[in-house]
Amino acid sequence: MSGKKLAVSSTITLFLTTILMAFSLTVDAGENRAACYKKCVNDYGNVLGKTKSGVISYSNCNNDCVIFEPGNYKGTYTGVKWQCVEFARRWLLVNHGVVYGDVDFAIDIWDKIDHYTSVKNKTKVKVQSYVNGSSTAPVKGDLLIYAKALLGTGHVAVITQVDKKNQRLFIGEQNYKNQKWTNDFARAVDYVNKDGQYWIHDAYLVGWKHADF
């Protein structure tokens, strides 16, 4: 085959591959969107609860639902509605005026996010990672990061309150179980301090991300 014919063949192959990929993504997006209107724990977009600081958690219907519609808070992009990543980013924005960068999955926050960025002046706030069992205690505002084995994407939640006396953490989140909150937090998890190490008793937890605000 001549070089010219080979180039044309390669171009056609690339074109067809691109069309097939686009079609596949469209089908996947359609299937993910369709999942948002069936077998909902709570209807998509319903309010599940609200933290003490006024950050609302919305239902994502179920864990298979993905609608590529951008969320925002006062003009700042917060993420895809109503994913767990969007809630965590919005909570940080409302409470501290910072956001973190784009990630494909919640678990990516663990390795890829090393700073938050101030929306007001673009300064960077360093973020530390503490694996479960660390000697550094989890505190309010830390992000809890869960392994990819959970839901295939991992999960992120926010510590909104800490009860040191009873060693309990109160968590705000979206798209975990999509259930109504019964208080100003989604759920509570216990932790212990054993020999100077802090262990949070929650399945699939990798650790927590901390920033000094």
Return residue spans where pLDDT drops below 50 for at least 5 consecutive residues: 3-29
The count of strands amounts to: 13
Distance between the termini: 65 Å
Query: What would CATH call the homologous superfamily of the largest domain?
Result: endopeptidase domain like (from Nostoc punctiforme)
Estimated radius of gyration: 20 Å
N to C succession of SSEs:
HEEEEHEHEEEEEEEE
**CATH fold title of the largest domain:** endopeptidase fold (from Nostoc punctiforme)
Strand content: 25-35%
Count up the domains. Answer: 2
- CATH class term of the largest domain: Alpha Beta
Give the overall pLDDT as a whole number. Answer: 89
Q: In percent, how helical is the residue content?
A: 10-25%
C-alpha geometry:
globular
How would you sum up the major sheet? Answer: 9 strands, antiparallel
For the largest sheet, list the strands in their spatial order. Answer: 5-6-7-13-8-9-10-11-12
For the record, the CATH architecture of the largest domain stands as Alpha-Beta Complex
Counting DSSP H or I runs of 4 or more residues, the number of helices is 3
Secondary structure class reads: alpha+beta
Structure description:
By secondary structure, the chain is of the alpha+beta class. The protein has 2 domains: 1-37; 40-211, endopeptidase domain like (from Nostoc punctiforme) (endopeptidase fold (from Nostoc punctiforme), Alpha-Beta Complex), CATH 3.90.1720.10. Helices cover 23% and strands 31% of the residues. The protein contains 3 helices and 13 strands. The protein has helices at 3-34, 84-96, 108-112, and strands at 47-50, 56-58, 70-73, 76-80, 98-99, 115-118, 124-131, 143-146, 155-163, 168-172, 187-194, 197-200, 205-211. The protein has a 9-stranded antiparallel β-sheet with strand order 5-6-7-13-8-9-10-11-12. It has a two-stranded antiparallel ribbon with strand order 1-2. A hairpin with an 8-residue loop joins strand 8 and strand 9. It is globular. The model is unreliable at 3-29 (pLDDT under 50).
